[in-house]
Each structure stands twice: as structure tokens, then as C-alpha cells.
Amino acid sequence: MRPLSVLTFLLIASLLLVPWGTSKVQAGNTNETLYNEPYRPQYHFSPQKNWMNDPNGLVYYKGEYHLFYQYNPYGNKWGHMSWGHAVSKDLIHWKHLPVALKEDDLGMIFSGSVVVDKHDTSGFFDGKSGMVAIYTSAGETQQQSIAYSKDNGRTWHKYKGNPVIPNPGIKDFRDPKVFWYDETDQWVMVVAAGDRVQFYTSKNLKDWTFTSEFGADRGAHGGVWECPELFELPVKGNPGETKWVLQVDINPGAVAGGSGAQYFVGEFDGKKFTTEQKDVKWVDYGKDFYATQSWNNTPDRRIWLAWMNNWQYAQDIPTSPWRGAMSIPREVSLKKEDGEYVLLQEPVRELSQLRKNIHTWKNQWITPKTNLLSDIKGETLEIQAEFQLDTAKEFGFKVRKGSEEETVIGYNTDNKTLFVDRTKSGQTDFSEHFPGVYQAKMEPENNTVQLRILVDRSSVEVFGNDGETVLTNRIFPNLKSQGLELFTEGGNVKLKTLKIYHLKSTWK
Ligand code: FRU
């Protein structure tokens, strides 16, 4: 084709494509993208444009999962923090909605949560049910404020009596997570307060009473505590037993450097959290899983997600016109093993609807010479594998492979560690904190190691042994780097089962 006809062709093609490609993404927004940029997540949530950080206000209400998020409506870096908003019926396909809460005289709108006020305890809803957001007003000081919505989160009214908890003289006082506690018939708030969390209770979401604090002498303390989360879970395999999980983010000082999430397993009586746990437990051993929040009001399971980023380089990751992505929503559960409580995370079952082609293998010996996956290519994959350990020192997968790029996900049998190496994953030079190898101890179970890996255009999430060890990392490979390899070093390993699915984009 001559240059002119190429241009004409592109023009016609884009005219034809634009209305179709965007209609599902967001009605009524004139600044749409086709969700096809080189690093654009294809099945993870990202805003169409501009800066996003923490998930906020996660709540299930009238058939919709709401996802609010820290958002800068004016640019691609942190600032003017507001709550962006999206809804989904299945946690996988998201519809963008207009910005829900904008900065005001009390300051920016920092992180917080949303509850369903079923019995109108707040008096905002004329005896009916409605949604109340509890967030941090971040101005000269940080204080807790509320807003309410009578129309399923579409429009919001800020309460005239804000702030509902004025700053008590603590510099970092933010990120209230609120939930209903049945036994005492009241609302509970857990909120970050410097190097600890504090608990408050309320009958009406407007008047709050301080009840206790936790953490000054527990857990990791390399940085400030942020975005706490508290919920009760049944203990798997032990009918009748439940435990409370307190999740707290820390920045910096997390296990992979920079920001990350730790958790405590213990008891909560409506006013006070206690635990016998002495060691630090990490939610995720990768670099990019922060500000975890779980959905309030889900009937049958506990689901959370996190912002896939790290404050060390969050503002420098090479994406445009948006910056920020969420992890896959994960169902969380708890098990007890050798007297220890262990948190498990697995992608929500709804993800399986994206699977298209599948490749399967069974009971196959893998030697350093085997080249099992040379025909398979993909930028969006779900890999499920079970290995029986043998003589191999190291085995695993190389994903998003190109001539000079690869992200290595492996298991080292000497150290019993699961690791992700992103030193050669693609673009890494935008921050000295980006390239690296991240690892976590993981014992084989009955001499087998199980891996579930989610690969997208710019992320890799690795779930080891039913989600008991998780590593989440962003990567920025060339769009053409789509090769896949199953490798073993220093000996052989037996592949008991392997399933590889290609995943559809949720934005098309
Ligand atoms: C965590 C955080 C929160 C705060 C928000 C501001 O990433 O620092 O503590 O509310 O981001 O955007």
C-alpha cells in the first residue's frame, strides 16, 4: 500500500472501531481509550485515564459490586484525591461511573469504606436502606467524615456535621474501614493511627466512641501503618471455629521493600482486637499488592483486592494516559496448619468465564532438555500446574518471553522458596527499586508443589499451594514478548498436571 492509502485505511478503521470499542467501556465519556495500550491490563481493573491508587468503599449492594478508588481527576500523578467509581455484576467486567466524591473545604478525600445502612441507623434514608461512605478528609489535619447516597452510589451528599471524628492530635490518622457488628448491634471502625490502629464504635455512623488500639508492640514497624481491614473467617477443616483477621498495610518496611501488607490472626469482641501471634505474617511477597480492602456486605464469601503498585515507584511506572491497576479480586479463607493460622487467597471463581483455549498435559517427566511449551504464546494467560519434586534444583515457568525479555516464576527445591524474577521482565529502568527477585518460603505438600499464575499485559500474580503463598508483581514487557517456557535446572521434575488457558479481554 502507498503511504496515503495506509493512512486512509487507518483512519477508516479507527472511525469504524471507536464507537464499538468504547461503548461498553463507558457511556458518555468523551475521553475514552480502547483499552489497548501496550501495558493496558486486559482483565484487571484500571481507570481509563489519570492516576489511581487504593481501592475504597468496596461494597456489594443490590446486585452490584462497587469499586471506588483513590483518583486524581486532573492528572497522571497523585494529587486532588477524589473517589473514582466503577460497578460490576461479576467482579470481572467493570463499568465506569462519574467521580463519586470530590475534594472540599475539609481537604482531599482519602481512603475509606462504604457500608449498607440496612435499617437507617443514620437517619439519612427515611427508614429505608442506603449507602454511607466513611472516609478521611485530608486537609491541614486528617479527620474522618461521612457521605451518603440514596441512589445506589450514583450521587453522594456530604454530611453537614463533618468531620464525625476530628483529629485527635495524631498526624497520620486515616483510612477508616467500617462494618456492622451484630453481637453489640453497632458499627465498628478500624482506622490507622501512625504506628498502630484504633477502634471506634457507633450506633448511627455520626457519633463515634474510641474503644481501644492495637499494634504499637506487634508486627512490622519500618513505616507508617495504613488502610487497615478487619473481618471474621471460619477456619477450614475445623467446623465451628472462627478467627478474626486484621490486615494492615505498611509503607515503607514491607517484605519485598517499600509498601506491602501484613496480617494478624486473633480475636475481636466488638471493641478490642487481641492476638497471640508473635511473628510477622505477610499477605503477599511480591512488590505490588497494597492497600488491600475487602467487600462489605457480600453474602457468602470474603473477597478482597489491592492496588498493584508500590509507593517506591508508583508515580513513575511507564503507563499513560492512566496510571494504576487493581489486582484480581481474590477470595480469602483461613486454615490451621501445625498450630499456625494461614491465610489463603485464590482468584474469584468468576474469572473462569474468561477462559478460551485450553491446553492440558498429565504425568510427564520434564528434563532440562524438554521443550514442552514452545508452541504456546500469550499475553493473557492462566496457568495451573502441579509438580512432583524429584532431582531438579529449580523449575517453573518463564512468561512474557521475548528475544531479550522474560519473567521467571520458579520453585527452588534447596531453599524451598517460591520466587519471581523480574530483573529482565522488560522496561525496568524507570526506578532503581523496580528490578528485583522476590521470594517466599513454601513447603512442598506431599512432595508436590502447586502453582496458579495469572499473566496479563503488565502484571503477574502467582498463587502457590492453593494460595497459601502469593507474589504479585507488575511487569512492563514488550507487547511482542509473548513466549512461554517450562523449565527445570539441575535435574528432572514430574509434571503431574498442567492446564494453560488463554484469557479474553474484559474491555472488548
Ligand atoms: C495508601 C494511602 C492512604 C491514603 C491514600 C491517599 O496508599 O497513603 O493511607 O488514604 O493513600 O491517597
Structural class designation: mainly beta
Helix percentage range? under 10%
* Average pLDDT reading: 94
Categorize the overall geometry. globular
What ligands does this structure carry?
Answer: beta-D-fructofuranose
Strand content: over 45%
Number of helices: 1
Low-pLDDT runs of 5+ residues are 1-30
The radius of gyration computed from the alpha-carbon positions, rounded to a whole number of angstroms, is 23 Å
How far apart, in Å, are the first and last alpha carbons? 28 Å
Number of strands: 33
Largest sheet: 9 strands, mixed
Notes on the protein architecture:
- The protein is mainly β and 508 residues long.
- The chain has one helix and 33 strands.
- The chain has one helix at 3-23, and strands spanning 50-61, 64-72, 82-88, 95-101, 108-117, 130-138, 142-149, 157-158, 173-181, 186-193, 196-202, 209-214, 224-236, 242-251, 260-268, 273-274, 281-282, 290-294, 303-307, 322-323, 330-337, 340-347, 355-366, 381-388, 394-401, 407-412, 417-421, 437-441, 448-456, 459-464, 469-474, 483-489, 493-503.
- Strands 13, 14, 15, 16, 17, 18, 19, 21 and 22 form a nine-stranded mixed beta sheet that branches. The protein has a six-stranded antiparallel beta sheet with strand order 23-33-24-29-30-31, with no helix packed on it. A five-stranded mixed beta sheet has the order 4-3-2-1-20, with no helix packed on it.
- A hairpin with a 2-residue loop joins strand 21 and strand 22.
- The model is unreliable at 1-30 (pLDDT under 50).
- The structure holds beta-D-fructofuranose.
- Residues 53-54, 70, 81, 110-111, 136, 174-175, 226-227, 291 line the site of beta-D-fructofuranose.
- Residues 53-54, 70, 81, 110-111, 136, 174-175, 226-227, 291 line the site of beta-D-fructofuranose (FRU).
